[in-house]
Structures are given as C-alpha cells and as structure tokens.
C-alpha cells in the first residue's frame, strides 16, 4: 500500500516532465478496458491495453486504469505506474506550429526545452526517443522512463515510474513496454 501511495504522489513529479510542450492537449481517459490478449516476454506475461484514444501498449497484467487530471491516460499497480499525455496536431496549430509536419526528433527537442531537461533524448526500442531520470518526492526516490510516440493525429509523451530502488528490476520491463507501444 505504501508503494502505491508513493507512486501516486510521484505523479506530482511526473508533471515536471509531462507538462505539455505546446498547449496541454490532455484528453479524457474514457472508460476503455484493456484488451484480453497476452504475450510472453521472458518470464513476464504482458497484457495488451487499449486506451481507446489511439494508443495501445503491452504491460504486465494487473495494471489498473484511473483518471488523473491533466493526463490522457494513467495505469498503476502497487509497484509501478504508466501515464500518457496526448497532444493533437490541432493543439500545435493553436500555437502556430504544424504538428503533422513536426518530426519525432523535433517534438523531443520541444519537450526537452519546455521542461528544462539537461539530458538529451536517446533512441530506444523501436527507434522511439526516451529519457530516464530520478526525482525525490516526500523523501522517496523515483525512477522515470519517458518515451515519445507520433501517431497519425497526435504526439504522445508516455512515462513509466517505479521506486528508484527497483530500477534494476523495472528498466528492462519499461524498455519492453515502450517497444510495444503503438499510436494510431
């Protein structure tokens, strides 16, 4: 229970990175249920989750969906969480940018600048930009793995988090989950 409470508090820190690079186009999480399909990845069974917003992702079984203000999607378990912010190309046009013409690399630079990040995004599984970092929240250290996706009508900023002390266990999982993420 303490882990889940700590991870929920970690959302506060997540907003540091997940603040919208443009205009904050978070959509409602809706009531979509995870799909029933599962795939084997090492010893961890992955379940396919369909957000109902054009994002599908495979994560461990038992991730529970919840609504969090400012986020398009949020899933959590006792030991980790996933959140996503969807920024539509229309959001970009509201600030004078052409989202459809913006590359994933350019979007990564916008996210980096908007959030005053020191590190550059690296190329991760499936060629998707990602960055890792840690933050201390109320005395607990958290590990974050944030990746970016471009769909047909929106960009996604997806962050996974766990206690920093469990980084060794979760980094390979977050990489696998990231590799499975697809935006329509």
What's this entry about, in short?
26% of the residues lie in helices and 36% in strands. The chain is α+β, with helices and mostly antiparallel strands.
Helix content: 25-40%
Discrete helix count: 4
Cα(first) to Cα(last) distance is 35 Å
Mean pLDDT: 82
Approximate strand percentage: 35-45%
How many strands, which pairing sense, and closed or not: the largest β-sheet? 7 strands, antiparallel
Structural class: alpha+beta
- The rounded Rg comes to 15 Å
Order of helices and strands: HEEEEEEHHEEEEHE
Coarse morphology: globular
Give an overview in words:
- The chain is of the alpha+beta class.
- The chain has helices at residues 2-18, 89-93, 104-114, 167-180; strands at residues 38-41, 44-50, 55-60, 64-65, 73-76, 80-88, 122-123, 129-137, 140-150, 154-163, 182-183.
- The strands form two sheets. It has a seven-stranded antiparallel sheet, sandwiched between helices.
- A hairpin with a 3-residue loop joins strand 9 and strand 10.
- The longest helix is centred in the N-terminal third of the chain and has 17 residues, at 2-18.
- It is globular, with a radius of gyration of 15 Å.
- The N and C termini lie far apart (35 Å).
- Mean pLDDT is 82; it is low at 4-42.
What labels describe this entry?
single chain, about 180 residues, alpha+beta, 7-stranded antiparallel beta sheet, 4-stranded antiparallel beta sheet, 4 helices, 11 strands, globular
Secondary structure: elements and pairs:
Blueprint: H1 2-18, E1 38-41, E2 44-50, E3 55-60, E4 64-65, E5 73-76, E6 80-88, H2 89-93, H3 104-114, E7 122-123, E8 129-137, E9 140-150, E10 154-163, H4 167-180, E11 182-183
Antiparallel strand pairs: 1-2, 2-3, 3-11, 4-5, 5-6, 6-10, 7-8, 8-9, 9-10
